[in-house]
Design a protein that fits this description.
heterodimer; A: GMP Synthetase, Chain A, domain 3; 3-stranded mixed β-sheet; globular
């Protein structure tokens, strides 16, 4: 299902040799409420954003995942992440989407319904990619594929 | 060993002849041994620095050395000579950057390497360029400036590495500095202006780009160049400031304005590096009015972020000598006054405004004294008349803001002389019962007083003024409140509450620690007789209905004031002689065992311990110690005052542990014995926390106590074996006390000291994981976590216990324990994969639960731990 799967995630990003670099946002400050044992903190967009922040710094600097493009509702257990490939013909779009999806599956409670899609109008084959990402069976099959899992895991390994 | 040829070269070169240099170069060609290279580089450096005439050999000499640039060397494992990559890099750089004669060959090489793809080559080249600038002049740089600028610009605009960016900026700074300082021949043109114009041309349009993507890199480049010399600063500021001022008005969104103002702030800060003799020469004078109106606009913007930058800019503008007019200052003070009373949701702005007021007061005490103080004084007194009208919460918070503003501006001696009387007056009114007073209000006044005292610590004269004014007043108020009266007013009771007395004590301590021994001695002769003899003559109002006798069967109200005496005498410098010391120590001991008021007896025990710690060794110290031990033993043996005797034992032990007194071992053993005491056991376990922690009121380094730096390590080495032994020997029901005591000791120890000791404690730590006390759990987890990272082999043996216990604790009721347990789960992934894989699916299933924890901080740890467990044994990880 993934086109141009050769090499790691970063190879794909190099297709665009001169991307715009954005200023990094700081660590989320810890509030008094977060330190209070009693107060529940609901899952919000920044938290979803930080989940991705830790695995691929480049994603944030390249604004592939942006906090404003994350919709989350803790009470309704839904999350929607729109990601923006660096260029409209990025052949790694499916792989990036898959990595985001896998990271969400591993990091969010099971009750959540996840939707990962391309920011409308930012990729040539937007619909095809979105369709693949929404297909549970395809995602599951993709993760059975050792080669593909390897590439996804490479993306998700924390940078040291 | 070193090749003999190099020794030979060294000798040859020292006798200096052209032929030997030539020979040296020939030998050096193709050398690969790092030891020889180091010698060779040193020789070439000597050749150049001793100014041998190199004549036609310059290029050849450059070539034989520069072929090693950039150094790419990884020391072999177990290298007996210990030559590091950096040694080679630095010695080669010393050669390359040693002479301007290399410039025409070196600069093209550096540009080529900066343009390469290799990160280390970029860094090395930029650093070498930086080093060259200290010996080069305009002549050497002239032909290469456009390419150098192009390379640096590209690196700063596009790099993903902060180090490359920083080195690029540093190189640009040095280049500009070099161009600014070069001595020119009469007919040469000055390259600085054209170089800066180039930079401006390439950067200025980015400053105006509405989407602001290259705004920051451009600003950083311009600031790096502007920071190099006064001329560069003038050149760049005079172009950039009008541009940025215009941009500020063009953009209406707060966040864009904030970015622009932050850039302006950066350029303003650079101005402070240069001093201008003549006022009219200063480049900022022209823009002063525009800058002021822009800052005031920012200060009234609804965006907190923009306000914050506005406040910082105002501080920097104010720090420029003679820039602001008195009218500007009045306006600025007005804004700061308004910002000092901001609502709770813009707390950061209020704090920043207070800080700015403090900084600016040191420069313009007059403006603050005439425009701010009267307003604050009025606000402070409002509390009296407006109680009924305003809604309680509102008034309350305005009142606290006012107190904080008063202490914030007490940064200048002349202001302290106005603010201190205001605050003390306010406290006296509270005591007289004119105002409805809550303990929280008195505490707030005390906190303000304490901040004022802290600010006075730099200036001995102000500090003595504070001490001399505030101390008699505070003692006077307290003594008066402790007098028996017919109508016992509620307000007087407020002053005697535990928290209020602690706040008063803290002011007294802060106002005493920095006294010179002479002045302290003067003060101590008033205060000790007040407590021992009831001598009230030094107090401002000293006609009291009855005597003040806190030690001789005075009322419990009077006894409580010993806390204030403690704060005073325990803050004195060590060499100040305390009058009637013998009598004082005996009274303190007696009161420490009095069981009617725990507050007073604890204060007395602390005071005794504080004095004991500072007492020089000798007969008198031994006598005091004997008395203390007797009192403790008598107390522990009796039924009624066991708790007080225990508290005394604890404080005396602490006083001795801190100064490594030999008797401390004996007292610690006594304390350890109490761990199995059915009544005092839990308190004794918590006592270990007190022994190991830093106190804030007595026995502090700031209060001149004798605190040895390694006391925790020493306590650990001396006592942990006994604690472990005690644990194994103790009956089941008191075992947790030993574990808790041990936890406190381990917890406070620096991790590097603890780590090598932990394997011997491992079995105990594993047992402690099952203890139900969350203090023990937390401390155990924080000990195990680094151990998992450092000694995975040992820990692998206990994998089953560790996984089970960590997973159980990850659903503890305490958030801190859950976090620590999940961090340990994360650290577990450092163990060898074959050990972990059998547990992988179990752990991943179990960690799904904390992903839905109600606390975000717990979820964060669960996410990273679970992510790592997923990667275990998986392809690509």
């Amino acid at each position: 299902m993934v086109g141009g799967g050769e090499g790691g995630g970063r190879v794909g990003l190099l297709e665009n040799a001169n991307p715009l670099i954005y200023e990094r946002s700081g660590e989320r400050p810890v509030t008094a409420g977060e330190e209070d044992e009693q107060v529940p903190d609901s899952i919000d967009a920044r938290e979803i954003f930080d989940i991705h922040h830790c695995w691929e710094l480049a994603d944030e600097e390249l604004n592939v995942v942006e906090q404003v493009r994350i919709q989350v509702s803790d009470p309704e257990s839904t999350v929607a992440v729109a990601f923006t490939p660096t260029i409209p013909h990025c052949s790694m779009a499916t792989l990036i989407g898959l990595s985001i999806k896998v990271k969400l599956l591993r990091s969010l409670p099971q009750r959540f319904k996840m939707d990962v899609h391309i920011t409308p109008g930012t990729h040539a084959s937007e619909h095809a990619v979105n369709k693949q990402l929404a297909d549970k069976e395809r995602v599951a099959a993709a993760l059975e594929n050792t080669h593909l899992l390897e590439v996804v895991n490479q993306c998700l390994s924390a940078r040291s | 060993m070193y090749s003999p040829c190099y020794k030979w070269i060294a000798i040859q070169c020292s006798v200096s002849s052209l032929t030997s240099c030539d020979h040296g170069k020939k030998v050096m060609d193709g050398e690969k041994d790092p030891r020889n290279l180091l010698v060779a580089f040193r020789i070439v450096h000597d050749l150049i620095s001793k100014d041998y005439s190199l004549g036609p050999f310059v290029e050849e000499l450059f070539e034989v050395t520069s072929c090693y640039f950039p150094i790419d060397f990884t020391p072999p494992p177990n290298d007996p000579y210990g030559i590091q990559r950096d040694d080679l890099i630095l010695s080669l750089r010393a050669v390359l950057a040693s002479t301007p004669r290399f410039a025409e060959f070196l600069l093209p090489l550096l540009i080529e390497k900066v343009d390469s793809e290799i990160l280390s080559a970029k860094l090395d080249s930029l650093q070498t360029l930086n080093a060259c600038c200290s010996v080069y002049g305009q002549k050497e740089l002239k032909d290469f400036l456009p390419s150098l600028w192009a390379s640096i610009r590209r690196e700063v605009f596009q790099t993903a590495s902060e180090r490359v960016e920083a080195e690029g900026l540093a190189a640009l700074h040095s280049l500009t500095a070099c161009l600014s300082c070069s001595v020119l021949r009469a007919d040469a043109e000055d390259l600085l202006d054209s170089f800066l114009s180039n930079i401006l041309q390439d950067c200025r349009h980015h400053l105006c780009e509405p989407d602001m993507k290259l705004v920051w890199p451009s600003a950083k480049l311009l600031q790096a160049a502007a920071g190099a010399s006064a001329r560069a600063c003038e050149h760049i500021t005079s172009t950039v400031l009008p541009l940025l001022l215009e941009q500020f008005h063009k953009h209406s969104q707060s966040n864009q304005r904030r970015t622009i103002l932050e850039m302006i702030l950066g350029f303003l800060k650079l101005q402070q590096k240069w001093s201008y003799e003549d006022k009219d020469e200063r480049p900022l004078t022209r823009f002063k009015d525009q800058l002021c109106s822009l800052v005031f606009m920012a200060l009234t913007d609804p965006s907190t972020q923009l306000q914050l930058v506005g406040i910082r800019t105002l501080t920097v503008l104010g720090s420029q000598p003679d820039l602001l007019s008195s009218g500007d200052l009045e306006l600025a003070v007005g804004h700061l006054y308004r910002l000092s009373f901001l609502e709770e949701d813009s707390e950061s702005c209020r704090v920043a405004a207070l800080e700015a007021s403090g900084t600016l007061t040191t420069l313009y005490p007059g403006a603050f004294s005439s425009h701010l103080l009267p307003k604050l004084a009025k606000e402070l007194h409002k509390g009296k008349s407006d109680v009924a009208r305003e809604d309680g919460l509102m008034k309350c918070s305005r009142h606290f803001c006012c107190l904080q503003a008063l202490s914030a501006i007490s940064t200048h001696p002349s202001i302290v002389r106005e603010t201190l009387p205001l605050l003390l007056q306010r406290l006296c009114q509270a005591n007289k019962g004119n105002v409805v007073t809550e303990s929280s209000e008195v505490i707030a006044i005390c906190q303000s007083l304490q901040q004022v005292a802290e600010k006075c610590q730099q200036d001995p004269e102000s500090y003595w003024y504070f001490h001399e004014t505030a101390i008699p007043c505070l003692f006077g108020l307290a003594v008066q409140a402790s007098m028996p009266e017919k109508e016992s007013s509620v307000l007087r009771k407020v002053l005697l509450e535990d928290e209020v007395l602690a706040a008063l004590a803290s002011v007294i301590g802060t106002a005493t620690t920095h006294l010179s021994p002479e002045l302290a001695a003067q003060s101590v002769t008033c205060i000790v007789p007040l407590f021992l003899d009831g001598n009230t003559s030094f107090l401002p109002e000293n006609s009291f209905p009855s005597r003040f006798q806190p030690f001789q069967d005075g009322s419990s109200a009077q006894r409580r004031l010993v806390a204030l005496l403690t704060a005073f005498v325990c803050s004195l410098p060590r060499n100040v002689e305390i009058p009637q010391l013998n009598q004082l120590m005996r009274e303190l001991l007696e009161q420490s065992c009095c069981h009617s008021c725990p507050f007073a007896s604890t204060a007395a025990a602390k005071c005794f311990a504080g004095l004991l710690n500072k007492q020089p060794p000798g007969q008198q110290l031994d006598e005091f110690l004997q008395l203390a031990v007797d009192t403790v033993e008598t107390g522990l043996a009796s039924g009624s005052s066991r708790n007080q005797a225990f508290v005394l034992l604890l404080w005396v032990t602490k006083a001795l542990v801190l100064r490594y007194h030999p008797l401390s071992a004996c007292l610690t053993t006594r304390l350890m014995g109490l761990l199995s005491d059915p009544e005092l056991g839990p308190a004794a376990a918590d006592g270990f926390s007190l022994l190991m922690s830093d106190c804030t009121d007595v026995l502090t380094r700031a209060g001149h106590a004798d605190v040895r730096i390694m006391f925790r390590q020493r306590f650990f080495t001396d006592n942990v074996p006994a604690l472990v032994q005690g644990f194994h020997a103790a009956p089941q029901d008191v075992k947790p006390n030993y574990l808790k005591g041990l936890s406190h000791v381990l917890n406070r120890l620096p991790k590097p000291v603890l780590l090598p000791e932990l394997p011997t404690l491992l079995s105990l730590l594993l047992e402690a994981l099952s203890c139900h006390d969350s203090v023990v759990q937390l401390s155990t987890l924080s000990c195990l976590q680094p151990l998992l990272l450092e000694s995975p082999q040992i820990m692998s043996l206990h994998i089953d216990t560790l996984v089970t216990k960590f997973l159980t604790l990850s659903s503890s009721h305490s958030m801190a324990v859950r976090i620590a347990a999940l961090q340990c789960m994360h650290a577990l992934t450092r163990l060898p994969a074959p050990v972990l894989l059998p547990y992988k699916s179990q752990v991943i299933r179990a960690l799904a639960k904390p992903l839905d924890d109600k606390k975000r901080l717990v979820r964060k740890e669960a996410v990273s731990a679970r992510g790592e467990w997923f990667l275990l044994g998986s392809p690509g990880s």
